[in-house]
């Protein structure tokens, strides 16, 4: 497939770029990233009729070795061999989970047929619930990657547009037929402490750990810090919550995914997360800073390179789906573009673009599909068959 | 983030861990002292742990004194395992170790004791192993681990092992645990030599290994320079008519201006698993030579070393030869395998012999009479030819018992419709004896030494 990517700081530059590129190629698919204001202003790009178009609101766009906040970026894809794409969207997912599960279950294509990309608005809990339910008993191999749109709006509202139609509580699934994919996932947080069992949870709320109220655990952890569990919220204490995410452990013993706590609810004394937490889950607290994150990025970029060497192929597009919270930690140490610089070292010359998310979708470490993450960075290689 | 707060939280976490740890220890102590079996088992791999291994070794050493058997102690340490732990987390590292343990268990035989004796260190005790088998077993373990791949997402993890080997001999060693120490020192020496190496505490084995490594260079040279692999044939003669009925294909390598006979490199090529490659190149050269059409109607014997892993190659060899016979050369191909291999793999080979029969390919048993085969075995399958072992032919000139054996083989073979070949006929007396006993064919220096294909064809 032919791939052209761009990044522009302002909308006029982006529109000019789109016209310029579409004059030279007739793309099958255009995926763009833009600030949330672009969608609220009802703005749009001029595209050829045959081009399918997905828009994702984001805090920042990454391309090659740089990151631009409040910027515009895009990927034009034109299939040259047997590849093709098919878009399917659903809105109002928080109203009826089962409808969404049924919808997703029917439209996912197997690894044999190609790759699935899923982009969603910031209904983290519901997207996570849909994924958990859909993949609970799935046996076939499925390649599914994606992310939750992000924004710096005061209430964190996000948008997805599909051929001009806006979704505010839904997702779009792109079936990339006859497109192969492979990936690495960087967590970068170090597990600390012993393993706990979540003994009571509902949706994204945890009530008890090892049969003890969660507040007991939080009181112990926060002792003498000047912060109480009741102070924990997404704005005031975001740093604390983001630097101590929870790692979830699979039955066979490996860390499958990571979720970040959101806040403490005084009303029912529950601890809320940016994703679904299931009763019976085994968890470990983790900690990490810029240094830990970047050490892991180095290891993953090396791993990505090894995968390319093992497969003897060069991807036609590398997509980076990376978390806003993670970037926030790096930004705190003025290292905001360091992650992309490290990746870029290994994939120089290959179209490389991505965006900041409020949640990432990918397989777990052992390749089990349909996991929902926070604070991770997915590096995804795509090749048309 | 405010580092004071972060430091405080981490300290608090440490307090939490300590509390939980103390609780768990007390709970553990409070329970009955656990069954002994549980204390001797590794929690991760379910193999024996270090204590379990030591206990087992002490028991084996007592038994070895009674039965006068040696015990090989092989200790393995995974190379660069720390990198797996650092790159993928120790949880993935544990899963990797678990699978390595499973692999060792799967390749173990009934006289093996397998244990995890350290973080990434495994121990194997092989009871009653013969001296010359130790090298092969060590190489087998090394290559199985080297070929083991562990899938993590889209990546594959693999490793090599540094090995230390020592041998407990019941009459010269008093303490088996000090022999275990020697093996572990061997690991350390292997690591310092550059990893992925085996170090033997016995100088004899170390020398043998060195020799095999040197011979490997010759074999590798031949594999990379196919012209160095020569097609040699030793004629086989009818003892009655004195004409050449065919010959046996023999491996030779031309190295540094000399033609090296198979006896000098065959052990090394089997040891390093390179023999199938050599055999394939040689056979391809023979079959694709335009001159082989001149061998129509002749018997060409192809010897194959059967190791369990290579059994499946026999079927494709039969198919290839069958096609060649029918479509190209009209040669009567004879696949020969040794008597011992035939008996060890009898259940599989009996079907193979029938498979070959249907495709007009003949089967011969080599070194017949050397091992434990009997006519009971060969009478159950349609074997075509029996090649009598050298030791019997050598002795039959003077020794009456051996003469009786040759005579019996000859008579029974005729009854079972099998032809007989006497190998290593190197003088007139042996030829005469074999003729008297009605052996059908002869092979050996008395008739001809092995010849290059061209020379062999000129003889016909």
Topology overview:
The complex is a heterodimer of chains A (385) and B (460).
Chain A: E1 2-8, H1 11-24, E2 29-34, H2 36-40, E3 52-57, E4 60-63, E5 66-69, E6 72-78, E7 84-90, H3 97-107, E8 114-120, H4 124-135, E9 144-148, E10 160-162, E11 165-167, E12 171-177, E13 179-186, E14 190-202, E15 205-209, E16 212-213, H5 214-222, H6 238-243, E17 246-249, E18 255-259, E19 261-265, E20 270-273, E21 282-287, H7 290-311, E22 317-323, H8 324-332, H9 338-347, E23 352-357, E24 360-362, E25 371-373, E26 377-384
Parallel strand pairs in A: 2-3, 8-9, 22-23
Antiparallel strand pairs in A: 1-6, 2-6, 3-10, 4-5, 4-23, 7-12, 8-12, 9-24, 10-11, 13-26, 14-15, 14-21, 15-16, 15-20, 17-18, 17-21, 19-20, 22-26, 24-25
Chain B: H1 3-30, H2 36-39, H3 50-67, E1 71-78, H4 81-88, H5 90-107, E2 112-116, E3 121-127, H6 131-146, E4 150-152, E5 155-157, E6 161-168, H7 176-193, E7 198-200, H8 203-224, E8 229-238, E9 244-255, E10 258-261, H9 266-271, H10 275-288, E11 299-303, H11 311-329, E12 332-338, H12 339-344, H13 346-358, E13 362-368, H14 375-378, E14 385-388, H15 390-395, H16 400-415, E15 419-422, H17 428-436, E16 441-443, E17 451-452, H18 453-459
Parallel strand pairs in B: 6-7, 9-11, 11-12, 12-13, 13-14, 14-15, 15-16
Antiparallel strand pairs in B: 1-3, 1-6, 2-3, 4-5, 8-9, 8-16, 8-17, 9-10
Helix pairs in contact in B: 4-5, 11-13
The largest sheet of chain B has its strands arranged as 8-9-11-12-13-14-15-16
**Integer-rounded radius of gyration of chain A:** 20 Å
Radius of gyration of chain B: 29 Å
* Helix coverage percent of chain B: 40-55%
- Number of individual domains of chain B: 3
Show unreliable segments of chain B.
none
CATH architecture title of the largest domain in chain B: Alpha-Beta Barrel
First-residue to last-residue Cα separation of chain A: 9 Å
């Amino acid at each position: 497939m032919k791939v052209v990517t761009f990044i522009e700081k302002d909308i006029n530059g982006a529109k000019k770029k789109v016209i310029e590129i579409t004059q030279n190629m007739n793309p099958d698919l255009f995926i763009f990233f833009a600030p949330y204001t672009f969608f609220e202003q009802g703005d749009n790009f001029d595209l050829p009729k045959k081009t399918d178009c997905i828009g994702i609101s984001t805090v920042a766009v990454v391309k090659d070795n740089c990151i631009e906040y409040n910027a515009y970026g895009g990927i034009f894809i034109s299939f040259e061999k047997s590849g093709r794409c098919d878009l399917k969207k659903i809105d109002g997912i928080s109203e009826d989970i089962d409808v969404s599960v049924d919808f997703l279950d029917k439209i996912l294509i197997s690894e044999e047929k190609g790759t699935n990309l899923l982009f969603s608005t910031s209904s983290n809990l519901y997207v996570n619930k849909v994924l958990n339910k859909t993949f609970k008993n799935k046996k076939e191999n499925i390649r599914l990657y994606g992310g939750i749109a992000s924004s710096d709006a005061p209430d964190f509202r996000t948008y997805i547009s599909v051929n001009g139609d806006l979704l505010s509580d839904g997702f779009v699934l792109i079936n990339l037929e006859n497109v192969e994919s492979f990936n690495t996932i960087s967590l970068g947080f170090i597990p600390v402490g012993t393993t706990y069992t979540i003994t009571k949870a509902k949706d994204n709320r945890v009530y008890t750990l090892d049969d003890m109220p969660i507040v007991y655990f939080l009181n112990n952890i926060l002792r003498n810090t000047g912060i109480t569990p009741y102070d924990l919220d997404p704005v005031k204490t975001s740093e604390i919550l983001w630097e101590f995410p929870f790692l979830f452990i699979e039955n066979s013993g490996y860390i499958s995914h990571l979720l970040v706590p959101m806040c403490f609810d005084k009303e029912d004394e529950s601890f809320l997360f940016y994703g679904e937490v299931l009763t019976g889950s085994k968890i470990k607290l983790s900690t990490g800073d810029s240094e830990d994150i970047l050490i892991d990025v180095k290891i993953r970029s090396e791993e990505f390179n090894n995968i390319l060497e093992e497969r003897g192929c060069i991807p036609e597009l590398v997509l980076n789906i990376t978390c806003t919270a993670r970037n926030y930690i790096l930004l705190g140490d003025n290292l905001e573009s360091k992650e992309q610089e490290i990746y870029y070292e290994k994939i120089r010359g290959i179209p490389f673009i991505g965006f900041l998310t409020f949640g990432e979708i990918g397989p777990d470490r052992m390749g089990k599909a349909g996991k929902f993450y926070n604070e991770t960075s997915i590096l995804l290689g795509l090749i048309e068959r | 983030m405010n580092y004071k707060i972060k430091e405080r939280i981490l300290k608090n976490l440490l307090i939490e861990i300590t509390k939980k740890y103390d609780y768990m220890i007390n709970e553990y102590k409070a329970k009955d002292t656990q069954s002994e079996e549980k204390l001797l088992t590794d929690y991760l791999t379910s193999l024996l742990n270090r204590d379990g291994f030591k206990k087992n070794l002490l028991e084996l050493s007592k038994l070895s004194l009674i039965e006068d058997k040696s015990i090989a102690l092989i200790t393995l340490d995974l190379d660069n395992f720390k990198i797996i732990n650092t790159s993928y987390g120790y949880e993935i590292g544990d899963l990797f170790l678990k699978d390595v343990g499973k692999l060792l268990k799967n390749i173990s035989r009934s006289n093996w004791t397998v244990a995890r004796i350290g973080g990434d260190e495994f121990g194997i005790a092989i009871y009653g192993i013969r001296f010359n088998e130790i090298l092969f077993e060590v190489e087998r373990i090394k290559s199985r681990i080297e070929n083991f791949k562990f899938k993590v997402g889209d990546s594959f993890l693999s490793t090599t092992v540094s090995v230390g080997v020592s041998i407990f001999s019941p009459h010269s060693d008093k303490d088996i645990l000090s022999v275990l120490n020697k093996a572990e020192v061997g690991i350390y020496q292997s690591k310092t030599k550059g990893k992925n190496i085996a170090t033997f505490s016995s100088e004899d084995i170390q020398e043998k290994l060195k020799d095999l490594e040197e011979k490997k260079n010759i074999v590798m040279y031949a594999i990379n320079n196919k012209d160095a692999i020569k097609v040699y044939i030793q004629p086989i003669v009818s003892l009655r008519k004195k004409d050449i009925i065919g010959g046996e294909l023999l491996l030779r390598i031309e190295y540094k201006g000399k033609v090296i006979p198979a006896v000098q490199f065959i052990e090394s090529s089997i040891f390093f698993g390179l023999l199938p490659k050599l055999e394939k190149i040689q056979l391809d050269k023979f079959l694709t030579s335009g001159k082989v059409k001149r061998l129509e109607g002749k018997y060409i014997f192809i010897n194959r070393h059967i190791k369990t892993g290579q059994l499946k190659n026999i079927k494709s060899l039969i198919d290839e030869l069958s096609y060649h016979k029918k479509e190209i050369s009209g040669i009567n191909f004879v696949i020969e395998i040794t008597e011992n291999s035939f008996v060890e793999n009898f259940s599989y080979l009996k079907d193979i012999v029938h498979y070959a029969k249907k495709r007009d390919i003949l089967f011969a048993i080599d070194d017949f009479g050397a091992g434990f085969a009997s006519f009971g075995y060969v009478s159950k399958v349609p074997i075509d030819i029996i090649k009598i072992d050298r030791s019997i032919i050598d002795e039959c000139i003077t020794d009456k018992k051996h003469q009786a054996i040759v005579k019996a083989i000859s008579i029974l073979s005729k009854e079972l419709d099998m032809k007989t070949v006497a190998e290593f006929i190197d003088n007139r007396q042996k030829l005469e004896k074999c003729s008297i006993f009605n052996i059908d064919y002869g092979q050996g220096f008395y008739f001809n030494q092995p010849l290059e294909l061209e020379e062999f064809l000129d003889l016909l």
